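Might you be able to review the protein record set out just below?
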Amino acid sequence: MNVKNVKKEIHPAFDDLCNFYEEHVFAAITNHLSPEQNENPDFLADVACVAMNKLPSKYIRHHVDMAFYMTPEEHQQMEERVNKAVVEAIDLVKSHKRGE
């Protein structure tokens, strides 16, 4: 079984599941990096993995579900956690450049 397609092969209901932080991390990475860094898929993927591993898992079906139940303070704290994780991840990945 191909791991990338495992959700679809098990049951289509799993296709809607995602980690709430993913989109926030991806957006923060794009905002923190230079255009050249945003063009390097390996760098982006490494930063995303490191940042996501610094954050708690929050699996949801619909982003509106999570957003509806969060207070403005919780939204602010979440954004701060995401930005901190992304900055730390960028620094870590930059310091471990492979073959450059």
The chain has a mean pLDDT of 85.
